[in-house]
Design brief:
By secondary structure, the protein is an alpha/beta fold. The chain has nine helices and seven strands. The protein has one domain: Response regulator (Rossmann fold, 3-Layer(aba) Sandwich), CATH 3.40.50.2300. The chain is globular, with a radius of gyration of 18 Å.
Amino acid sequence: MKAGIVASLRRPGGNVTGVNYMAAELSAKRLSLLHELTPRAARIALLVNPANPIPAETITKDTEAAAGMIGRHIEVYKAETSREIEMAFDALMQNREDALVIGADSFFIDRRVQIVTLATRYLLPTVHFLREFAEIGGLMSYGASDFGRYREVGIYTGRILKGEKAADMPVVQPTQFELVINLSTARAIGMTIPPSLLAQANEVIE
């Protein structure tokens, strides 16, 4: 709604509706999971894309608020090009950050191989917003279930093709979420995953 694409989630208006992935809205939960993994981490970083200001602002605000609840400070790093991602990781290391939250952004999806490679190279515990990161070697991801999202998209596509108006169809909110942990990456960066966190995981990649 902040972007002005729909009038409201319940009644979008116009000719647009869809499925909300809640990628940005789950930032506080991702921080919580990262804190459970690294409870002694004093310095926690957040990477956002300033070229996409609305979600970047939401992610920063929510993550900082969640960090305050656990007595931590968030240092925000920004990148909107591949070169700036490299520079951000260099700065992360120079500032001795202990852990990293990747802010939800489509550009970071495109650069996920670069991000995962850098996080592994620097032995940096990192939480991502899509399982695609964990599947290629990211340590941990938390987000809306792919199966649930695709199912809802298929249902809505069918309803629209049958003549329903998008303006009258509420934007669907995800109800299924998944935590994916990559144990191979954990071993590679010298991390031990707590049993309590493994118990929450929907999938553990060996």
